[in-house]
Write a structure and sequence with these properties.
With 275 residues, the protein is an alpha/beta fold. The protein is built from 11 helices and 8 strands. Helix content is 43%, strand content 17%. Helix 4 packs across helix 5 and helix 5 crosses helix 6. The structure holds zinc ion (2 copies).
Length: 275
């Protein structure tokens, strides 16, 4: 058995609904999963309120992935076992959501300047039930209109950190996000440290009240895993990992179960959650 602690649903920019994620995870034989949508817990709320969170033999951790900034770098902070009904979390998420809408408007303006004619309506149509409209949805419109072959290519050339249509400056900084997760009773974990692109920023993050580092990640090679694992041990932090599954064709992993971590790591996270 294996586990996956980083999964997105259609409530952010994943393609599968939370129910479909649970079914796919069950079929893949996963023992522990965490749903970690971008800046929303609506997918988990949806499961709870429809009493669909009880899948026999599988542990489901309520999580979130917050988009933040630290010293000019985009940093994602995972929050595990957050109380999805926490007022502090709800307040923080309202602020983040306002920021998202502002950033989306700025991004569409920038795209117009660059000669890509995309409307907010087209983005919203692709976003469907998502509570957090994002760059991924913009990328999907760009692909749909034939500007790029894949979502990945749109990010690499246009929307990714530092690219022409990238909008810098997230409203909440990483320190606030860490506090927000703690205030909601959760465990903050630094997501995919390699993608931050700065060791200086990473060491700054490790001075915050974080509980872990996402050591295992599809884009981390053996050397990255060794290095981040060592850092986790040095700072007495949990080692977590997950596939960052979105269910998007052409984006690895395309299905749940293709990238997993050992159950022991998930067990240690659950143990820390219950302390
Ligand atoms: Zn992320
Ligand atoms: Zn993610």
């Amino acid at each position: 058995m294996s586990s996956d602690l980083h999964i997105h649903t259609s409530f952010s920019d994943g393609r599968l609904t939370p129910e479909e994620v649970l079914t796919a995870a069950k079929e893949a034989g996963l023992s522990t999963i965490a749903i970690t949508d971008h800046d929303t817990v609506d997918g988990i709320r949806h499961l709870y309120e429809n009493e669909k969170d009880n899948v026999k033999g599988m542990t489901i951790i309520p999580g979130i992935e917050l988009s933040t900034e630290c010293d000019g770098k985009e940093v994602h902070i995972l929050g595990y076992n957050v109380d999805i009904y926490s007022a502090a979390l709800a307040d923080g998420l309202v602020e983040i959501s306002e920021d998202r809408w502002q950033r989306l408007a700025m991004m569409l303006e920038k795209l117009q300047e660059l000669g890509y004619d995309i409307s907010e309506a087209e983005v919203l149509k692709v976003a469907g039930t998502s509570s957090s409209v994002s760059r991924s949805h913009v990328a999907r419109v760009l692909v749909k209109k034939g500007h790029f072959p894949t979502v990945r290519a749109a990010f690499d050339e246009l929307l990714g950190q530092g690219k022409p249509a990238y909008i810098p400056r997230y409203r909440i900084d990483s320190a606030e996000a860490v506090e927000l997760v703690r205030a909601a009773g959760g465990l903050p974990v630094v997501a995919h440290p390699l993608l931050i692109g700065s060791d200086a920023v990473l060491s700054k993050l490790l001075k915050l009240d974080v509980a872990g580092i996402e050591v295992y990640y599809p884009q981390h090679n053996g050397e990255d895993v060794r290095r981040y694992g060592q850092l986790a041990e040095l700072h007495d932090l949990l080692k977590t990992g997950g596939s960052d599954f979105h269910g998007i064709p052409g984006r690895y992993p395309e299905s749940l179960g293709e990238f997993t971590i050992e159950d022991e790591l998930a067990r240690l996270l659950v143990e820390a959650m219950n302390k």
